[in-house]
Design a protein that fits this description.
The protein has 210 residues and is α+β, with helices and mostly antiparallel strands. The chain has two domains: 109 residues, TATA-Binding Protein (2-Layer Sandwich), CATH 3.30.310; 88 residues, TATA-Binding Protein, CATH 3.30.310. It is 27% helix and 35% strand. It has four helices and ten strands, in the order βαββββαβαββββα. The chain has a ten-stranded antiparallel sheet with strand order 2-3-4-5-1-6-10-9-8-7, covered by helices on one side. The longest helix is centred in the middle third of the chain and has 18 residues. Pfam families: TBP.
Length: 210
């Protein structure tokens, strides 16, 4: 599967430290590629542009928590966090705010990975749905699938959730008739590989649309 993007979180200040309202507003005003409208959303939005018109957005909260969305892959998470940190440091200097001695990248972690796959064959997703409803208690292929929904009048894809004792997070998957697959709710590439190899790929192989 191809990783499309990741969501990551980290803090700029340790413990319960936070920016004062005055300093937070100054940082927003002196920011690089930032916008801040507290009436709409209580965070500074900073945009980092990549090649091929891709953008990572950093949501910076007064608590010093930062949420990075649209990170192209896990390897770039720390690089994106470093860019945010350097821009915040620049804003602090420009705003003539007293320097924060403990400003840094604290507790950086990946909270969600969105990955995708394109099967060579179309898929009989309606048959997967029917088989799950009839045999999920007896068929090993379905034992790690916890919930399945399919209503083409509402949404064109089969939606299901997966859980495994090896990983403590429940993942969500969409399978389209075209063979396109989207997997979310995961925070490690190992879980992506495991779920694809042991659940998703066997479903695609067993239920091709002939």
């Amino acid at each position: 599967m191809n990783i499309e993007n990741c969501t990551c979180v980290f803090k700029l200040l340790p413990g319960i430290q936070r920016f004062s309202s005055e300093n937070f507003l100054k940082i927003a005003r002196c920011g690089i590629n930032t916008e801040y409208n507290p009436k709409r959303f209580h965070s500074i939005i900073m945009r980092i542009r990549h090649k091929h018109n891709r953008t990572t957005a950093a949501l910076i909260f007064q608590s010093s928590k930062v949420v990075l969305t649209g990170v192209p892959n896990i390897r770039l998470a720390r690089k994106m966090a470093t860019i945010v940190l350097k821009r915040i440091e620049f804003s602090i200097r420009e705003a003539k705010i007293q320097k924060f001695s403990e400003l840094g990248i604290i507790s950086l972690k990946v909270t969600n990975i969105v990955s995708s796959y394109r099967s060579m064959n179309r898929v009989t997703i309606e048959l997967i749905y029917q088989e799950f409803r009839r045999r999920h208690k007896y068929d090993k292929l379905f034992e790690k699938i916890t919930k399945v929904s399919y209503d083409p009048t509402i949404f064109p894809a089969l939606r299901f959730k997966m859980n495994d004792d090896k990983f403590k997070r429940e993942a969500s998957c969409l399978i389209y008739i075209s063979g396109r697959v989207i997997l979310t709710g995961i925070n490690s590439t190992k879980q992506v590989e495991y779920l694809f190899d042991n659940i998703i790929l066997p479903l695609l192989v067993k239920f091709p649309r002939l």
